[in-house]
Amino acid sequence: MDDLKKKTIHGSLAKLFGQTANSALRLGFIAVMARLLSPEDFGTVAMVIAVTGVYDLFTTAGLSLAAVQRPTITNEQVSSLFWVNLLVGAILGLLCVATAPVLVAFYGEPRLFWVTIAMGAGFLFNAAGVQHSAMLQREMRYVDLTAIEVMSLLLSSGLGIALAYSGFGYWALVASTIAAPAVATIAMWVATAWVPSSPRWHTDVREMLKFGGTVTINNLIVYFAYNFDKLLIGRWWGATSLGSYATAYQLVNVPTRNITGAVGAVAFAALARLQGDPARLKSYFLKGFSLLISITTPITIFSTLFADDIVLVILGPKWIEAATIFRLLSPTILVFSIINPTGWLLQSTGLHVRSLHIALAIAPLTIAAYIIGLPYGPEGVAMGFSTAMVLWLVPHVYWCLHNTGITPREFFLTILPPFAASVAAGIISGAVAYFWLDQVHVPLVRLVITGCVMVLSYASILMLGTDRRAFYLGLLKDLRGSPSSSSIPR
Question: Is the pTM of this model over 0.90?
Answer without folding.
Answer: no
